[in-house]
Amino acid sequence: MGKQAERARTGKASGGRAAAGRWKLEDAKARFSEVVRHAREDGPQHVTVRGQDAVVVMSVEEFERLAPAKARPPFVAFMESLHLGGLDLEREADRGRDVEL
Fold first, then answer.
1. Distance (Å, whole) CA 4 – CA 41
2. Could you tell me if 14 and 34 are in contact, meaning their C-beta atoms sit under 8 angstroms apart?
């Protein structure tokens, strides 16, 4: 079992951390390299200010997984970029079929 899972299971925290993955701002500042190491090994680390979640420190791999690769153009701009002006989009009137009941 990993260290973070063990701490979460037992409810014990280590040096200045209120709980696994949570840091007071002053502790996170003083031990930033440890916060970064935990973010890379154990997952996102929450930093609190006056007891309230303020920021999350996470690995770049996690961030890239969550953040979109690039901004998407608006739908109308995307459709216009396809240059479908010569495409015939007319439909024939479909009146269904005759059914004897």
1. 9
2. no
What's this model's pTM, rounded to 2 decimal places? 0.53
Contact status, residue 3 vs residue 42, Cβ threshold 8 Å: yes
Measuring CA to CA, how many Å separate 86 from each of 77, 90, 92? 17, 12, 18
| Predicted local distance difference test score (pLDDT) of residue 69 | 77
Would you list the DSSP string of 25-56?
Answer: HHHHHHTHHHHHHHHHHH--EEEEETTEEEEE
Per-residue tokens: 55: 């920021």
Structure confidence by residue, pLDDT tens digits, 35-48 = 999 999 999 999 99
User: Smallest Cα–Cα separation from 21: which of 4, 41, 40, 1?
Assistant: 4
CA 21 – CA 13 distance, rounded (Å): 9
